[in-house]
Amino acid sequence: MYEQFLEIINNPLSSLAIIGNLIIIESLLSVDNAAVLATMVMDLPKEQRQKALRYGIIGAYFFRGLCLLFAAFLIQIWWLKPLGGLYLLFLVFNYFRTKSTPDKSDDLLNKKEHWFYKATLGWMNQFWATVALVELMDLAFSIDNVFAVVAFTENLILIWTGVFIGILAMRFVAQWFVKLMGKYPFLEPAAFLVIAVLGLKLVLSVYEHFRPGDEISKFLSGHTADWMTSLITVLIFVVPIITSLLFNYPRHAQRT
């Protein structure tokens, strides 16, 4: 841990860039999470919706904190990183596959057909069965986040700092991202492109493991690769926004 602290002191700009990207990733994933959770509570009476979502936020905090501890083990078990990378790439593939089909009904979780919801509904009322499913989704989303943040850095101090700030900002920044994506709809697929970059970085850790002394491995595990990853993630968002503002390409939402 002391060596990781020295690494931050010796590379402050790189560390700040990593923390900033972790906050962005946490917020981006939170937008998708919030959309799914909001969909799941829509069939509840109006007075119960906010209560269910409040339990969901508490669960999100709890499971993300739990997964922060899991991150320490994730770093030590080398094969979990490429496995997590493949999982993130699958999420991206599934997103674009779903978007390419005319029927968009698969975009949202069909709560009433979910096996966990149907099982809990047998011994819980609708409200608590919904809360239980929300918590299960929180756990799944937290695992997604851990795989994503570990792709940026193995420094636990940076991971804890970035994710902790991300958790605090999650509720507010996610709302801002929802508005931003409403104005710039192309940012949603851009967010999944960022996740694809992180997934690819995790998959490439296989090379680092089997060729530890190789020049490519040194590059992948060095600060230059971290800088490049941070730069690519920023450009994926900034470049299309600039071209949209200047040339309306990609098209942004028209003001009404």
Topology:
Layout: H1 2-10, H2 12-40, H3 46-76, H4 80-99, H5 115-120, H6 126-150, H7 156-183, H8 187-203, H9 205-210, H10 215-220, H11 223-247
Helix pairs in contact: 2-6, 2-7, 2-11, 3-6, 3-7, 4-6, 4-8, 6-8, 8-11
Membrane topology: Multi-pass membrane protein
GO cellular component, one term: membrane
Family: Belongs to the TerC family.
Helical content band: over 70%
User: Beta-strand percentage?
Assistant: under 5%
Rg (C-alpha, Å): 19 Å
- Helix-strand string: HHHHHHHHHHH
Uncertain spans: 104-108
Number of individual domains? 1
The total of helices stands at: 11
Largest sheet: none
Structural class: mainly alpha
Oligomer: single chain
Measured distance between first and last alpha carbons: 53 Å
**Beta-strand segment tally:** 0
Gross morphology? globular
Mean pLDDT across every amino acid position: 75
What does this molecule look like?
- It is found in: Membrane.
- By secondary structure, the chain is mainly α.
- Helices cover 79% and strands 0% of the residues.
- It has one domain (2-247).
- Residues 104-108 have low confidence and may be disordered.
Which labels suit this protein?
mainly alpha, 0% strand, 256 residues, CHP03716_TM_YkoY, membrane, Integral_membrane_TerC
